[in-house]
Design brief:
7-stranded mixed sheet, 417 residues, disordered N terminus, 14 helices, two-stranded antiparallel sheet, single chain, alpha/beta, 11 strands, elongated
Amino acid sequence: MDLDENDNTLTQSLLENDRLVSSPSSLEQGDVSISSNNDEPKRRQVPTIVCIVVPMIVLVVILFIAVVFIPPAPVVPAKAKSPLRVFVLAGQSNMVGHGFLSKEDESGKELNGTLESLMSLYPEQYGMLSTKNKKKSDITGLESRRLSGSSSSSWTVRDDILIACNHQQYNDPSKEKAPNLKGSLYAGMCGGDASQLHMGPELGFGWSVGDALNTDKKDDKILLAKIAWGGKSLEVDFRPPSSGGSTGPYYTTMIEDIKAFLAGVDKYFPEEHDRPVKLSGFAWHQGWNDLINTTAAADYEKNLANLIRDVRKDLNVSDLPFAIASSGMVDTNDFKKDGTKTAEEVVRAELAVATYPEFNNTVMAVNTQAFRRDPPPASPGDQVYHWNNNCESYWLIGKSLGNAMVDLVRWREKTNP
């Protein structure tokens, strides 16, 4: 071999070694290029397990630091539900309520004083009580919907105001079942006797108290526990224990019903099972059967004061707010013509009890005489003892009782939070 041939062979060998060192494509994954002191390239394989374990170790260290040194996010407890305020509505037939929701004359015209006529004549005051798409025919179907426990599509339903009522067993308190009817408040719900389509003070009371105290309509709720029977006197039927003699059977049943209502809220309204229950007030509208009896009228102030004391004692709420609606359905001049003053005496007694120093800021009485409406044609009925069946009278009684109750509740919660 000559010299030129040897030179060519050496040159070709150097070029191949140079490509091995410098060309990226010549390095396989996991290989590294190492030059020795004499610049001769070598390859060393990195173990695959190292590529897996090292990142895992780093990840574990990071997680350890996060768990040990970084505080966890604070746990925000669920908002506790507000208490279910319970208001008792008690008395005789005018607390039961006998305002006609609807009644027409022979020509088909709505009579004055029905709730239908009030909504038509004064929509700014009463229009909110009905849904916008209410049909006239819906009224006739209200009774069946009410007795089946479902709400009417005709009337505005206040889901933030619950109501439960004994829907009286007229003359036998021993057969009482508490409650006979329950649901959300709307016109006609728990009004009248079991077979009637009437309204009482519960509607105005509920709207007044609900609007004032239910500041959060999605969370706040009130419950009206309505316990009333028609034709009952304070002198005999509701006679409180402190008045001596035989305790009235309807007083005893009323207390039993109230306790059953309070203890059975979870059963009657299971959706409220996680809400604390708070007895917040007692509203009273009664008097007709006492004002037509001379002895009962003379005893009324004493009996009413004892009723307040005994109810508070038996329900174990010493400062339970009491709101009283006077028996203003009677024109006292009619009684004076007969030489008696019994109606005037009962009204005076109802208003006087609220002025007792022991009841300061815990009892209020409202004079309802301004709510009286004349018989037909001003009203749909001529039952003077039932406010001539005028829904405006019952609405105003309920509103005035409700406003008084709101003042009492706010005072109580301000002074005794």
